[in-house]
Write a sequence for this structure.
């Protein structure tokens, strides 16, 4: 994480290994790939389409008739990637190409390991370089190579001949997320152990955490308001199920809390009390982590805990002025 | 100036936890083909395709409509993709209706889907972002405190939610497409099911489903030539409000109240409980039935649970205003499609095509969807009569 | 079809990285600007609001939900969203006006592409079984499309460089442009290839930003007393995702949409074409039957700055503003989505 007076940014990965079911057509193609065989599919007009699509692009008919095609063919068009990206199938310069296999009427996309751009040309013949181990994925084709290249690698037999019905698709994208201006200001205050919200210039309501605007009025907010540690429970739930990405062990209480002087609640943990004693209107106070652990995060407050003050009448929640300031 | 339009075909898939037998395209196609067959049409009869789904993170395919073009016979035709969070299935149907009601198109296909088994819905809905100000406790963690506040205000008995959970599952047992099939379910079983987000129990929450729903919508002239009865679109409305602002009413959101008023005015509904024969309402957590009964004007504020407890919303108990005869979201929840299923099931009721969960003599029905932090609403009223 | 007026348009500067501006902070200034142009206060003063954005651009589900915070949507408003370029949001609103349920509408599009690796992000909009797992990016497909045309002799590398030189030169007069300059074709051709045959300058830059527009019935525009441009025709089409089945030197969906929108019904003074790659401008010009008397991309087009999800609506706004300023009488705007121009929207605009 980097920080300056204004900008807070942090890298994060949006990722999941998706489990795709393929259906019979895609499944058959992947099953064939695993057996190191290329198959196309016959379109309504009799053309052989590659890779086999489930539905005819022109007639919209569901296609079913597979046709064997060769594992060699002609480059119809291509481009040269000088600097492969991390996600690309090759870490050396390579070509993407639309390759029309012998016996097919449309070209399919794959990559060509030609070593050098000068070795590539439209109309050149290429052949599949099968992966040493096949798994029923597009990567069973470890790229194409110019047809004259001798392939010496050992090919292990396919581990299974069962029909493929699914595949894993690991999709991990990295982003560098930058907090908005208001969020950055707020988190910088949090790092100093202070709760600072913003007041709407129009309706005068105080928002914490602030978002830089009042959603009701649709206007930017700038005026900062420092708030204290006391809050009221607006509502709450006891969470009993584990949530992906949340390390806290259930059961635990999360509550909608309105800080004194603020007009909108936020969710936070409530602790140091019996779950069954939590109630709407209950008075609580922030328990901060040790200062050494403070970062740019709401989690600097470890949790809120009950304090010995009378409950707030429901119609007053969210309308308290901050007396402790 | 708006042209008359009607639903002339409805197609759904069977809803289940994992549709392992089909690709994404195969699943969407299945609903679309079913809708075309119901309408007695082929791909060439369709002028445009309007598609909706919830966030692309569910399947990890960005703007999947690009890839779905061929499965939906859309090569050379217009295609539009709607995304309005959980209300998207309903919004998509409304946008699709607009294509016809504007007079620009004669007959269109609309589809919505979710194949949630490709990932984990809870992950996809709340993947952690840096500097995110809120605690991540899933959708239930967001809605449970609002439900608790409803219970406080209305003094509802603790088992009103349990009653809804049972009622909708008994409805679902009459719908062969419903995901959860629990014909033997009891109040005790729901009450004994594990607490997830207190006061919400496991059996009071919706499942995670794979599935797709499609409709063919036609103009007046073509609807008249349709082989089965059309469901005339008598009113359609959408409303949005921000997720959070000071003083926002979260239990009985203004956007829902306004949206209902709008759609009722268009359809000539003065008393929804009397003037409507049934309703398909987006109830992902049991307690949202009594809450929406009030929000949508079927009951006075604080009294929605009384209607629920009286059996008025139950088809099996012979209630006067069955809610979710299909079993609703509590039985099947492919999120992006859930709203459209409500709209399509409302249409099936007034077409007399609802099978075992048909409400006898249903003429006018409400379809409803909501999404985000209960802030996006879409509703339509369909009827067996044009006017 | 009834005529629809465009009365206001605003766009942010195209920036490579908008840094600490969140959705609301990106959107609010352009909204404020179109409200000012129209003489209204907020989204409460129009009948319908519709936006376009894409969750994956910045890697957050429900990116558009935060956008609602910029609208002042209390009391609640009639609002919708497309997971597409905002040009399609305009189309949805145009239908509402045709239908008679709205007299006016606010449209906006926003995109923050800077947080991610955009070409790799966009690779995941391709077929999820055959293409996405290879992480083949959109630049690669565009490059192969360009080579098809170079191989057939239909275009030369100099033709492509000419598009870029003109774009950069036109952008000198566009305060919102990100890339501008006075470069000759010869200079450009001296640059090394990037994803051959494309050079870096053949590809649009990555930009953050937003744009907004207000449309209404002619009667409403007269009532507001604001100058306007008229949408005479609008149509959108998609074509097959099976790229091997396509003739990549043509954009068939643009041809159909152009015909349906009535591009050829009169002379075209100006056209703004959403061509993220230089050779695609040539394909689009051909698909729309535009001659050399049409001024193409006077703003510099998206080669000078490309806010994904907003650029399509901005093309329409650029043409509308030129018509409103009296610089043109009739113009065409184009928006696109998907690999190799898979989906396209055409708008025909005229002066009042």
């Amino acid at each position: 994480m980097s920080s300056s007076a204004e900008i807070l940014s942090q890298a994060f990965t949006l990722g999941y290994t998706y489990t795709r079911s393929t259906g019979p057509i895609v499944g058959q193609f992947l099953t064939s790939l695993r057996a190191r065989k290329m198959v196309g599919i016959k379109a309504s007009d009799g053309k052989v389409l590659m890779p086999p699509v489930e539905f005819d692009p022109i007639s919209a008919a569901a296609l079913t008739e597979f046709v064997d095609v060769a594992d060699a063919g002609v480059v119809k068009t291509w481009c040269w990637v000088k600097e492969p990206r991390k996600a690309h199938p090759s870490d050396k310069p390579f070509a993407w190409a639309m390759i029309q296999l012998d016996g097919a009427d449309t070209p399919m996309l794959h990559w060509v390991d030609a070593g050098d751009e000068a070795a590539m040309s439209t109309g050149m013949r290429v052949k599949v370089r099968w992966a040493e181990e096949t798994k029923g994925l597009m990567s069973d084709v470890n790229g194409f190579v110019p047809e004259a290249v001798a392939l010496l690698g050992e090919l292990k037999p396919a581990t299974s001949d069962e029909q493929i019905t699914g595949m894993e698709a690991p999709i991990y994208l990295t982003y560098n997320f930058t907090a908005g201006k208001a969020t950055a200001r707020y988190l910088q205050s949090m790092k100093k152990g202070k709760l600072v919200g913003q007041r709407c210039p129009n309706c005068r309501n105080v928002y914490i955490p602030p978002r830089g605007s009042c959603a009701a009025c649709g206007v930017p907010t700038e005026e900062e308001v420092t708030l204290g540690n006391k809050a009221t429970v607006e509502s709450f739930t006891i969470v009993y199920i584990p949530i992906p990405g949340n390390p806290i062990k259930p059961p635990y209480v999360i509550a909608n809390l309105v800080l004194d002087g603020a007009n909108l609640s936020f969710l936070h943990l409530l602790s140091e009390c019996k779950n069954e004693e939590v109630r709407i209107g209950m008075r609580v106070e922030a328990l901060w982590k040790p200062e050494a652990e403070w970062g740019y995060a709401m989690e600097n407050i470890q949790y809120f805990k009950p304090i010995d003050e009378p409950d707030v009448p429901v119609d007053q929640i969210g309308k308290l002025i901050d007396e402790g300031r | 100036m708006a042209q008359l339009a009607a639903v002339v075909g409805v197609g759904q898939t069977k809803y289940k936890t994992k549709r392992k037998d089909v690709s994404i395209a195969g699943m969407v196609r299945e609903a679309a083909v079913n809708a075309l067959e119901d309408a007695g049409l082929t791909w060439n009869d369709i002028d445009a395709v309007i598609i909706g789904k919830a966030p692309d993170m569910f399947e990890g395919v960005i703007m999947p409509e690009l890839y779905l073009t061929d499965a939906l016979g859309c090569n050379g035709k217009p295609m539009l993709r709607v995304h309005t969070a959980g209300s998207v299935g309903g919004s998509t149907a409304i946008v699709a209706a607009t294509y016809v009601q504007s007079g620009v198109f004669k007959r269109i296909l609309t589809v919505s889907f979710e194949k949630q088994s490709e990932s984990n819905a809870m992950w996809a809905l709340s993947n952690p972002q840096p500097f995110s100000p809120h605690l991540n406790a899933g959708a239930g963690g967001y809605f449970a405190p609002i439900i608790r506040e409803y219970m406080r205000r209305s003094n509802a008995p603790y088992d009103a939610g349990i009653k809804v959970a049972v009622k909708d599952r008994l409805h679902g047992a009459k719908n062969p497409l419903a995901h959860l099939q629990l014909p033997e379910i009891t109040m005790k079983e729901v009450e004994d099911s594990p607490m997830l987000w207190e006061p919400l129990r496991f059996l009071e929450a919706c499942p995670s489903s794979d599935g797709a729903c499609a409709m063919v919508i036609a103009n007046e002239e073509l609807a008249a030539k349709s082989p089965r009865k059309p469901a005339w679109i008598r009113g359609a409305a959408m409303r949005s409000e921000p997720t959070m602002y000071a003083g926002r009413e979260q239990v009985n959101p203004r956007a829902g109240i306004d949206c209902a008023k709008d759609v009722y005015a268009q359809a000539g509904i003065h008393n929804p409980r009397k003037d409507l024969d049934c309703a398909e309402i987006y109830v992902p957590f049991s307690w949202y039935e009594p809450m929406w009964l009030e929000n949508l004007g079927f009951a006075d504020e604080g009294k929605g649970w009384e209607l629920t407890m009286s059996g008025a919303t139950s088809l099996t108990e012979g209630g006067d205003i069955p809610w979710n005869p299909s079993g609703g979201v509590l039985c099947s929840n492919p999120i992006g499609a859930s709203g459209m299923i409500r709209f399509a099931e409302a249409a099936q009721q007034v077409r007399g095509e609802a099978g075992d969960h048909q409400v006898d003599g249903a003429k006018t029905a409400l379809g409803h969807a909501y999404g985000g932090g209960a802030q996006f609403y879409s509703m339509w009223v369909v009827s067996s009569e044009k006017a | 079809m009834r005529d629809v007026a465009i009365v206001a348009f605003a766009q942010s500067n195209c920036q490579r990285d908008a840094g600490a501006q969140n959705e609301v902070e990106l959107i609010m200034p352009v909204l404020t600007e179109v409200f000012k142009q129209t003489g209204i206060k907020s989204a409460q003063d129009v009948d319908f609001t519709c936006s376009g954005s894409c969750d994956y651009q910045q890697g957050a589900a429900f990116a558009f939900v935060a956008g609602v915070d910029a609208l002042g949507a209390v009391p609640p408003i009639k609002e919708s969203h497309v997971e597409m370029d905002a040009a399609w949001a305009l189309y949805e609103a145009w239908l509402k006006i045709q239908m008679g349920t709205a007299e006016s509408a606010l449209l906006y599009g926003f995109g923050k592409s800077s947080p991610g690796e955009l070409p790799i992000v966009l690779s995941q909009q391709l077929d999820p079984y055959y293409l996405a797992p290879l992480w083949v990016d959109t630049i690669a497909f565009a490059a192969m499309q360009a080579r098809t045309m170079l191989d057939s002799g239909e275009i030369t590398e100099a033709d492509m460089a000419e598009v870029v030189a003109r774009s950069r030169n036109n952008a000198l007069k566009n305060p919102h442009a990100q890339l501008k300059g006075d470069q000759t074709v010869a200079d450009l051709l001296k640059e090394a290839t990037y994803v051959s045959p494309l050079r870096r300058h053949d590809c649009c830059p990555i930009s953050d930003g937003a744009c907004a527009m207000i449309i209404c019935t002619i009667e409403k525009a007269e009532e507001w007393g604001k100058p306007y441009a008229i949408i005479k025709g609008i149509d959108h089409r998609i074509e097959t995702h099976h790229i091997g089945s396509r003739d990549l030197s043509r954009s068939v969906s643009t041809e159909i949409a152009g015909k349906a929108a009535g591009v050829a019904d009169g002379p075209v003074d100006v056209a703004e074409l959403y061509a993220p790659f230089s050779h695609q401008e040539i394909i689009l010009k051909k698909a729309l039957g535009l001659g050399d008397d049409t001024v193409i991309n006077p703003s510099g087009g998206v080669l000078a700055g490309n806010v994904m999800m907003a650029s399509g609506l901005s093309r329409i706004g650029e043409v509308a503003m030129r018509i409103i300023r009296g610089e043109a009488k009739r113009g065409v705007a184009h928006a696109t989505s998907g690999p190799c121009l898979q989906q396209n929207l055409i708008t025909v605009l005229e002066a009042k």
User: Anything to note?
Assistant: The domain at 5-121+208-224 of chain B is CATH 3.40.47.10 (Peroxisomal Thiolase; Chain A, domain 1). The mean pLDDT of chain B is 96.
